[in-house]
Design goal:
Blueprint (H helix, E strand, L loop, with lengths): L3 E7 L6 H9 L6 E6 L6 H9 L5 E5 L6 H14 L4 E4 L11 H9 L5 E5 L7 E2 L3 H18 L11 E4 H6 L10 H13 L4 E5 L2 E2 L10 H18 L9
Parallel strand pairs: 1-2, 1-4, 2-3, 5-8, 6-9
Antiparallel strand pairs: 4-7, 5-7
Helix pairs in contact: 5-8, 7-8
Length: 244
């Protein structure tokens, strides 16, 4: 069995989903793919189901309604752990994360021995293409804010292109992850860091989507700002002990 799976949440990604799936399956290293589709009315799930006859490593989990990015990833992580995958990746469907860099994240964990590998936009400067300057600044200073409040040294704490080893996801109680938007990414990294796992940032070039619509909203950003403070305060009352 392949020990790598890429979890990709989708909502109305009919313009991107076939291309991203084909790209992942064309890579030199084998990856399975799990699409978590939140009832896309544009027929995204139907495209995936058609491709499943072509790619045996392609899977889909369909959910009723738009339930949020965080819950989609939690669903996918649990699905992957139940089936024995060792390296579990998260990635957007819109090509903002370069699919070929999945191999860099895999090598960082499987060969170099890190527990979490983050595809980082800011570890070697600002590597963002096609974003308006106000969005770049918001993202960059969000990272500064997160580091200041939490004490984490991660340069791109809101990144959504990541490889988690199974032991990390088993250690984190996924049922206790509370945030569903931008803050979900911060909460997962914060927990990985508090549990003492080895986290590395791998430089990538992030390119904003050219097809389909962004899912970012003001509410998601507000959740992140307030959520970071909540995370830090609640951590004082929690013990982070990895159960073997």
């Amino acid at each position: 069995m392949n020990n790598c799976i890429v979890v990709i949440p989708t909502y109305n990604e009919i313009e991107n989903v076939e291309a991203i799936i084909r790209k992942v399956f064309s890579l030199a290293h084998p990856f399975d793919v799990l699409i978590i589709d939140d009832g896309s009315p544009d027929g995204t799930a139907n495209v995936v189901k058609t491709l499943m006859t072509e790619f045996s490593g392609l899977h889909i989990a369909e959910r009723k309604g738009k339930l949020g990015l965080g819950t989609a990833y939690i669903h996918g992580f649990k699905w992957a752990l139940e089936r024995g995958y060792e390296y579990i990746f998260e990635m957007d469907a819109d090509f903002s994360h370069p699919p070929e860099d999945l191999i860099k994240l895999y090598k960082a964990c499987a060969i170099e021995g890190h527990d979490v590998a983050i595809g980082s936009r800011y570890i070697t400067g600002v590597n963002v293409v096609n974003w308006p300057i106000n969005r770049v600044l918001m993202s960059y200073f969000a990272g500064t804010y997160v580091r200041m409040i939490t004490g984490m040294k991660i340069m791109d704490p809101t990144a959504g292109f990541i490889c988690y080893t199974a032991k990390v996801l088993r250690a984190i109680n996924l049922d206790n992850i509370r945030f569903i938007g931008y803050a979900f990414q911060i909460e997962m990294k914060f927990n990985s860091w508090k549990y003492g796992f080895d986290i590395v940032e791998v430089p990538i070039i992030f390119t904003d989507r050219t097809k389909g619509a962004s899912k970012m909203s003001r509410g998601i950003f507000k959740e992140a700002v307030l959520g970071v403070i909540n995370l830090k305060i609640s951590s004082y009352f929690k013990r982070y002990i990895v159960k073997h």
